[in-house]
Amino acid sequence: MAAIIMFVGTGGHILPQAIRSLQGIGLPPDRLLSSALLLNIALIIFGLRRYRDLSAEVRERRHAEETARELAETDPLTSCLNRRSIAPSTDMLMKACAQRGEKVAFIMIDIDNFKRINDANGHSTGDAVLKACARRISELLPDRALLARLGGDEFACVVPFHPGLSERIDELAGLITSAVARPVRLGEMSIEVTVSVGLARSDLAADLSRTVDAQELLHMADIAMYQAKKAGKNRWFWFESPMESELRFRSDLERALRGGILAGEFVPFYEQQIDLATGRIIGFEMLARWNSPRFGMVGPDVFIPVAEEIGVIADLSERLIRQALLDAREWAPSLTLSVNISPLQLRDPWFAQKLLKLLVEANFPPSRLEIEITESCLHENVGLVRSLITSLKNQGVAISLDDFGSGYSSLAQLRSLPFDRLKIDRSFVTAMPGNRDNATIVQAITSLGEGLGLPITAEGVENAEVVAELQKLGQFMAQGYLYGRPEPAEQTRERLAKLGMLADGVNFAIRPDQALSGAA
Predict the structure, then answer these.
(1) How would residue 86 be classed by pLDDT, with cut points 50, 70 and 90?
(2) Can you give the pTM of this predicted structure?
(3) Are 480 and 426 in contact (CB under 8 A)?
(4) Across residues 40-53, what is the average pLDDT?
(5) What are phi and psi for residue 67, nearest 5 degrees?
(6) Structure confidence by residue, pLDDT tens digits, 132-144
(7) CA 472, CA 432: separation in Å to the nearest integer?
(8) From CA 148, how far away is CA 138, in angstroms rounded?
(9) Domain EAL: where (predicted)?
């Protein structure tokens, strides 16, 4: 600025003199002032160049800051908002909606079984599915709505709505569920996708005496989404206060379950298996029980699904099998031990080796062990299941198909997989007396077993009427409350000691009336 002022001041005096001198009129300008003018011109040129460089640097810095802000606030894969930015954006939207008399709905969206899609088709396919889902959801959202990818396979929408038109949020949830469920086509491949959706409203907070914020809305919608998952997926639920108590219980249960495994709170119980023709005890099925200091004695129907979901079922099962093998080693050599295997364990290609290692550690004969797998295992990876079954059978372990009749096993699978036994689902056996349909189903399964050369075990034998019905149909091994409820190891050992059926005793035929008199 100073150089420009000096240029104007000296230039106004020197330049006219210089022009007249060049025309041959008058004296030349003063040399000192001319030098000062040239210096001013040089300074002005330098300043202009510096100004241009500084302007470019500022523009680049602003662009870099804008890029950094976008990277911090948006998801690079889908271009949606991310978890970091959705909360402040939601709070701002809620304030704007409050001024207009509107409310806000928070919609939590989770892609069902996304890990399976990734594992089966690769991460590039998973990324394409995520982008397709984001695009489909975005196309359905109204103006002023927000869409964020929270990470992994979770998305969140924040939608303004009029309090009297909340049914539009239900319609939107239904549209999102239907739109995402359309197959995602990638070249010649078609990927089936479904979502579970949780909904929460800003005017239905747990505590209406205070204003709900974005984090609480996210929490409530997440709880509702979990309920949708639990109810079977591919659906949506609104948040309700009791859900939070249930989720808190579930969280406490998971924490106690993890600690209980390390503390040895899970113990094997044993249910008798009887040969109907002779009344002789053939063996026992091991059933898990959780002796929790907080929850009491918990059955497997409660903790097994939780253990499978949080990924600890393999550790839990191996600990129980290890203890059961040690317990069964004290029984008479003719008695077998049956253990149930989770479908998740059969996905482990090293499962057979782990089980054989447990047999070696316990010095337990493989011929006395029977593994029970359910029909659902056959639909996930028949090739791997066949490999595991063959590996175990080669070592002498017997394999039975559990809960037969409740699933969808084909005759081809039964013929191709080397099973040693079929176990009829208890729901058919228990209701046999007086129920012609169930009796017909049991008869059909019995004929099938005879045709395939497979012995049959009937579960759920609870009274003498069921025994009479079964004896009309053929030869069975039976188990159920008629012969006693499942017992812990010590009581089982005491029962066998009385019958002379410990390792140093002899086998003993037990009649149902004797079993009833000694049942726990």
Answers:
(1) confident
(2) 0.66
(3) yes
(4) 74
(5) -65, -45
(6) 999 999 999 998 8
(7) 12
(8) 10
(9) 250-500
φ, ψ at 434 (rounded to 5°):
80, 0
Give every CB contact of residue 385 below 8 A, 6+ residues apart in sequence: 346, 373, 377, 378, 417
Contact present, 127 and 99 (Cβ < 8 Å): no
- Please work out, in degrees rounded to the nearest 5, the angle formed at the alpha carbon of residue 414 by the alpha carbons of 411 and 415: 85
Q: Are 266 and 316 in contact (CB under 8 A)?
A: yes
Q: Of the ranges 52-61, 170-179, 366-375, which one carries the lowest mean pLDDT score?
A: 52-61
Residues 464-516: tens digit of each pLDDT? 888 988 888 888 999 999 998 999 999 999 999 999 999 874 444 444 444 44
- CB atoms near residue 141 (< 10 Å): 17
**3-state DSSP assignment of residue 340:** strand
CA distance 88 to 95: 11
Show the tokens assigned to 298.
């918990």
Residue 161, token pair as written in the block? 């709505």
Name the nearest CA neighbour of 277 among 474, 482, 514.
474
| Residue among 328, 417, 344, 400 nearest 377 (CA) | 344
Rg of the chain taking only CA atoms, in angstroms:
38
**CA gap 70, 89 in Å, rounded:** 14
Its sign, for the CA torsion 226, 232, 237, 243, is negative
**Residue linked to tokens 């889908």:** 78
Looking at residue 517, what is its pLDDT? 38
d(CA 152, CA 114) in angstroms, rounded, equals: 9
362: nearest Cα among 314, 321, 315, 316: 321
CB contact at 8 A, 145 and 129:
no
Helix axes 123-140, 114-121, angle to 10 degrees: 140
As a whole number, mean pLDDT of residues 98-108 equals 90
- 1's CB contacts (< 8 A; 6+ apart) are none
The pLDDT, as a whole number, for residue 9 is: 58
Kindly report the average pLDDT of the chain as a whole number.
83
How many residues in the chain? 520
Helix (H, G, I), strand (E, B) or coil at 457: strand
- What is the Cα–Cα distance from 334 to 505, expressed in whole angstroms? 11
| Residue 210 in this model has a pLDDT that exceeds 50 | yes
14-45 residues labelled b (16+ CB within 10 A) or e (exposed): beebeeeeeeeeeeebeeeebebbeebeeeee
Other CB atoms closer than 10 Å to residue 308's CB: what's the count? 16
172 vs 99, 328, 388, 455, CA distance in Å? 24, 58, 46, 54
